[in-house]
Amino acid sequence: MYKVNSQTKKTNFKLKLPEANSVSLVGDFNEWHADATPMKKDKNGVWKAELKLDAGEHQFRYFVDDHYWLNDDKATKVANAFGTDNSLARIQFNAPSKKK
Question: Can you give the pTM of this predicted structure?
Answer without folding.
Answer: 0.89
